[in-house]
Amino acid sequence: MRSFLLEVSLLLLFLLKTTNGDVLFSSLPRSFFVVASPIEGQVLKAGEDNITVSFGLNQTVTNQTDESYKKVKVKLCYAPISQVDRKWRKTNDNLKKDKTCQFTIYDKPYERNVEGFKWDIEKDIPTATYFVRSYVYNDVDEEMAYGQTTNEKKSDSLFKIQGISGRHVSIDIASACFSVFALLSLVGFFIIEKRQSKVKS
């Protein structure tokens, strides 16, 4: 009887974790802790600043085993405030359809604890509010567990990244110089034409 109940429990857990072979975020245990260097509300600049991240097995979670963990990915994820009216950033419980975490900042074989790897914020990271999340994967590349720097509602320990707008001071200066040059050229041509018309008369 006990073995039958165990089999039923495992079957229910499997059905909960998968929908047509897809893993649901709601089925994953929060077996990892993740710590990132930005403080609440801090604004970082793409292409200039960096983030230090450490992660490891959450020791407060009992009866967990990491024997099936083969790989870890750490990702930069959009906070809810930066997902409003942006379908291309939408959260979905089905992780194959989820677009919350689009930027991978660490992808390596599983280690139980990693202290302080540094990630330089890439130039193509858009302006938004973010948090950091990690996933651990099994040998068939399915998510097994997660950890994140924010709470379940994704409302605290958030930070901002200011993306590169595409305009630089040097471009603005060059534009101003060309505008002045064009104006002076126009005035010069006007003066020359007036003098020539006077000479003719």
TrEMBL record:
Domain of life: Eukaryota
UniProt GO MF annotations: nitrate transmembrane transporter activity
Alphabetically ordered keywords of this record: Cell membrane, Membrane, Nitrate assimilation, Signal, Transmembrane, Transmembrane helix
Xref: InterPro entries: Transptr_NO3_Nar2
Entry GO CC: plasma membrane
Keyword Transmembrane: yes
TM region positions: 173-192
Signal peptide feature range: 1-21
UniProt entry tagged with the keyword Transmembrane helix: yes
GO biological process: nitrate assimilation; response to nitrate
Entry similarity comment: Belongs to the NAR2 family.
Role played: Involved in nitrate transport.
Annotated protein name in UniProt: High-affinity nitrate transporter
